[in-house]
Design a protein that fits this description.
The structure is a homodimer. The first copy, chain A, is of the alpha/beta class. In chain A, 42% of the residues lie in helices and 14% in strands. A 6-stranded mixed sheet of chain A has the order 7-6-8-9-10-11, sandwiched between helices. The first copy, chain A, has a 5-stranded parallel sheet with strand order 2-1-3-4-5, sandwiched between helices. At the A-B interface, α4, α5, β2, α6 and α7 of A face α4, α5, β2, α6 and α7 of B. Chain A binds a DNA duplex through α2 and α4.
Amino acid sequence: MSVNPKNKLTKVSPTSIPKVVTLDMVAKEAGVSSATVSRILNGTAVVSLVRKKAVDDAIEKLGFVPNLVARGLAGGRTYSIGVVTQSLDSPFYGSTLRGIEEKLLPFGYCPLFVSGQWDAEVETRCIDALRARRVDGIIVLTGRMTDKALKSYAKSLPIVVTGRALTAPGLVALNHDNVEGARMATQQLIDLGHRQIAFISGDPQHPDAIERLLGYRKALEASRIAFDPALLAEGGFFEASGLQAVLELIASRKRFTAIFAANDQMAVGAALGLSRHSLRVPEDVSLIGYDDLASSMYANPPLSSVSQSAYELGQIAADVLLQMLAGTQPVFELPPPRLILRESCRRHVN
Amino acid sequence: MSVNPKNKLTKVSPTSIPKVVTLDMVAKEAGVSSATVSRILNGTAVVSLVRKKAVDDAIEKLGFVPNLVARGLAGGRTYSIGVVTQSLDSPFYGSTLRGIEEKLLPFGYCPLFVSGQWDAEVETRCIDALRARRVDGIIVLTGRMTDKALKSYAKSLPIVVTGRALTAPGLVALNHDNVEGARMATQQLIDLGHRQIAFISGDPQHPDAIERLLGYRKALEASRIAFDPALLAEGGFFEASGLQAVLELIASRKRFTAIFAANDQMAVGAALGLSRHSLRVPEDVSLIGYDDLASSMYANPPLSSVSQSAYELGQIAADVLLQMLAGTQPVFELPPPRLILRESCRRHVN
DNA sequence: TTGTACGCGTTATCAC
DNA sequence: GTGATAACGCGTACAA
C-alpha cells in the first residue's frame, strides 16, 4: 500500500472581494490617472517606478481584478478562443481539448468549448454563438460543415480546423494521414500471416472513415490480396456498432482471422462480440483499432491501435492559432500515425 | 450492413458577414432609435408592430448579430456560466459536462469550462479567471478547494457544487450518496456468497474515496463479516492504480473471491491484473466498479457497476443554477445510486 | 512620463 | 410607445 508523499494541506485563501473594484478606484487610491494604471496592467508604456509601486500596492490592497468583459469591448480582443468539438464526452476529443487548454492558458487565452453534435447546422449555430461572443479565433475539430462555409468564416476570423485538407486565407487545416495509418495497421496484420482480414468501417459520412477504408485496401493491394466486400462491415464509430458489425460478420459465416476496426471504440465492441461467440482475442482472431485511446492500454486484452496523438493534436492546433493571432506565418509539424502494438494481435497459424 | 436512413445533405449557408454590424446601424436602417431596437431584441417593453417589422427587416437585411461582450458590460449579465471540472478528458465528468451544456443552451446561457486538475490552487485560479470574465454563476464539480473558500466565493456569485454536503447562502451542494452506493455494491457481492471481498479504494485525499470505503465497511458489518485490512488496497482512481492494487493483493497471497473497486477505471485495471495471473472474471473473481462509465457496458466482460448518472448530475446542476439566477428557491431531486448488474460478478461456489 | 477625453456596443433611466 | 442620454469598465490617441 503506497503512501502519498505530498500530503500538502489544501488551504487556499480565496481572492473573494464581494465589492466590485474598478480600475478607476485603483487609480484614485494610488493617486494617479486611470490611464497609468492601464499602462501598468498591460505593459503598454514605461511608467516611473514610484507610481508603479503605488499602483501595485493599490491593486493588492483593493484586490482589484480586471474586468475582462470591459477589456474585450474596449480593446477589441477578448483573449478567448472558440473551440467547436463534436461531443464533450468523446474519449478521443477529450484529450484534444485538454491539449488545447494547456497550450492556451499560459498565453492568457481561455478556450470556449461548444459542441457541434456531428451536425452541420448545429455547428453553424455554434460558430455564430462564438462570433457573437467575439472570440479572437476558432478551432474546429473535424466537423460536418462544408469547406466552403468554413472558408467563408475564415474571412473574418482566424480558423484552425482538423481532419481536413484545404487551404484558404485565414484558415489552417491540420490533416492526419488516415490512409497511411490504416495501411500500417492492415500491413501489420498481413505481416503476421493474416489473409482474411475483416474491416469494420466508420460512419461513411465521415471523411476519416473513407480514408481509413482506403488505407485498408491499399495494404491489401500491395500484398496482392483481393479485396472482399463480404469482409467489410459498416459501423458508426461507437462501441455498439462494433459489436453489431462482428455479429453480422459471424452470422454471414464468412471466415476471417483478423479484424481491423476504424476506431478503438468499435474495436472494443468487436472484442465483446467475439467473446459472445467464444472467439478469443488474439488466439482465434487478431484485432487492431485506431486512435489509441487512453483506455485501450487497459482493454482486455490490451488493444493494438494506431495512434494519432489526440493530445498533441490539440496542442498543435492551439499553437498554430496562437501564431496566426501573433501575425506570423504558422509553422508546425504533425506527428505521423504510429502503430502501437499490444496483445490483441498475433501471428496467424493454420 | 445497415444503410444510413437520413442521408440528408450537409449544405449550410454561413451567416458570415465580415463587416461588423452594430445595433445603431440597425436603428438607422429601420429609422428608429437604438433603444427601440434593444427593446425588441430583449422583449423589454411593448413596441408597435410597424416598427418591430421595420427593425426585424433591418436586422435580417444587415445580418446583425448582437455583440455579447458589449451586452455583458452594459447589462451586467454575460449569460455565461463558469464550470470548474477537474480534467477535460475524464470519462466520468465528460458526461456531466454534456449534461450541463445541453441544459444551459436552450436558455441562452453558454458554459465556460475550465479544469482544476485536482489541485486547490489551480481551482482557485480558475474561479478567479471565471470571475474576471464576469460569469453569472459557477458550477464546481467536486473539487479540492476548502468548503470555506467556496462559501466565501458564494457571497458574490451563485455557486452549485457537486460531491459535497454543505449549505450556505448563494450555495447549493449536490451530494451523491457514496456510502449507500458502495454499500449496495458490497452487499450484492455478499448476497452472491462472497466473504473475502477485496476493496480497491480511491485517492484517500478524495471525499468520494472515504465515503465509498465507509459503505464497503457498512455492508460487511451488517453481515457480521470482519473487516480485514489485508483486503484493502489503495488506488488513485486511474486504471494503472487498479492494476497495481490487484498485483499487490495477489502478491500478498491473501485469498479473495471478489473485488469491489471504488471506480470503473480502477476496476478495468484490476481486471487486467487478474488476467495477468490467469484469474478469470467472473469465474474466479467477481468484480464490481463504481460510476457506470459509458464504456463499462463494453468491457470484457461487461462490468457491473454503481451508477450515479453523471449526465443527469450535470443537467441537475445546471438546472439548479438556472433557478438560482431566476431568483427562485431551487428545488431538485438527486437520483439515488443504482446498481447495474452485468457479467462481471456471479455466485461464489466453493 | 503622465493625464484628459473619447470610443467600444449595448442596456437602463429618464423624460416626452 | 418612443427617443435622447447616461452609464458599464477599460484601452488609447492626443496633448501636455
